[in-house]
Design a protein that fits this description.
Largest sheet: 7 strands, mixed
Number of strands: 19
Length: 268
Amino acid sequence: MFLNSKHNALAPFVRRGCSSSFEVTVPYKHLLAIRGRPAVLGCEFTPDPDLSNLVVTWQRQEDAQVVHSFYYQRDQLDRQSPEYHNRTSLYVSELHKGNASLRIAAVRPKDAGLYLCIVSNTKGTGRALMQVTYGALYSEPRLSIHVNSSALKVQFETEGFPKPEVIWLGEHDQNLSYHLEIHGQTEDGLYVIKSICEAQKPVVNITFKLKNHLLNQNLQRPVFLSYDEDTTGHMIIVLAVLLVVCILLVIGIVWLAVQKQNKQRPSL
């Protein structure tokens, strides 16, 4: 019920079956699927009101694994690849209209690749090829600020796919130097991005920008911070004074307790 032909390119995009009146087409050659969202792979064919001989098979072009199959007027999922169990469906009520579109729920990184839509009925047999690309929107960047005696470091951390473009801008929109860490992909296929910009001034006015060109996502997060360079020294002094006061209080409490105990002792 499925074909095991190998193709290395999208052309020819549409192939006609044995009948010139029958064809299988896809409305677009490329589909951009977003992590966690459903993806609908469109496919249309010349319909036949009689569905008893209709066979619809979706399979991966790279390794011919079966994504979804339909024949004998019902889904046939016993030979479906485990990667797609409980994640695929056809619009069965639309089959008589020539709609063989496939819905994949909760898109994953491994779903990216080439897909064949293969359809046959009494009018003929045909196939069409589609490419699916995977992308993940970057999460809201998490801000952390690290202060030491010599500098202030502003860090943003986020996850997404593919690798983004990162820019740090100064108060007058000038490009700033920064440190960028891109950690390997997680189990969800995401890149973990950490970017640090170091500021030397007491007043920090900088902007973090991230672009995910694949998904046309643009994040821009300004950071304005005013701090006292001597704050650390003042804090040390305050803590030292508080420590001395606490020690004196403890000594005083102990002394009073000893005096009270001595007064309560019976004289000999």
